[in-house]
Write a structure and sequence with these properties.
- The structure is a single chain.
- The protein has 4 helices and 7 strands, in the order βααβββαβαββ.
- With 152 residues, the protein is of the alpha+beta class.
- Strands 1-2-3-4-5-7-6 form a 7-stranded mixed sheet, with helices on both faces.
- It is globular.
Length: 152
């Protein structure tokens, strides 16, 4: 059974899952990993979700303020053996609902071309491709996306 817990980046299960995410990204990103890692620190994240499957932490995600109207989706990860079971969409939906509760009207995110499963998840969740933003402008491997959460 899947359950979701709203928490912060101080949560030990969240930190454990992020460590697994970073190991996965180090392999996928190769030499580019250092560039991306600098933008993925969790100390400034106050809104995190941990997914549990029968009380085992299996996935996570987080949001942080991007600007006055949008939050940025960060640190999305599901353990490989639990992928394809609806965990990631559930986490993403919980993060979007939390963003709405906080009065944000949109979510933005960056993922990499080397994470095709992540791109598919976001496309299926109605995220639209956008020009790369902020530190990702001009970065060939980056894919930036945005979803409006409610009418402006």
């Amino acid at each position: 059974m899947l359950t979701l817990l709203k928490t912060t980046s101080a949560d030990a299960d969240f930190q454990e899952l992020v460590a697994l995410l970073d190991q996965d990204l180090a392999v996928r990103d190769g030499a580019d990993h250092g560039f991306y890692a600098q933008f993925n620190k969790i100390d400034m994240i106050g809104h995190a979700v941990v997914a549990y499957w029968n009380n085992q932490p299996v996935g996570c995600g987080a949001i942080k303020k991007y600007d006055e109207e949008a939050v940025e989706v960060k640190r999305m990860f599901v353990r490989p053996e639990f992928r394809g079971k609806g965990v990631a969409p559930a986490i993403l939906q919980e993060l979007e609902a939390w963003a709405k509760e906080l009065d944000y009207t949109a979510c933005v995110l960056e993922t990499g071309k080397k994470q095709p499963e992540a791109i598919r998840l976001y496309e299926k969740s109605q995220y639209a491709h956008t020009p790369n933003y902020g530190q990702y402008v001009g970065v060939e491997n980056s894919v930036c996306m945005r979803k409006e959460l409610r009418e402006k």
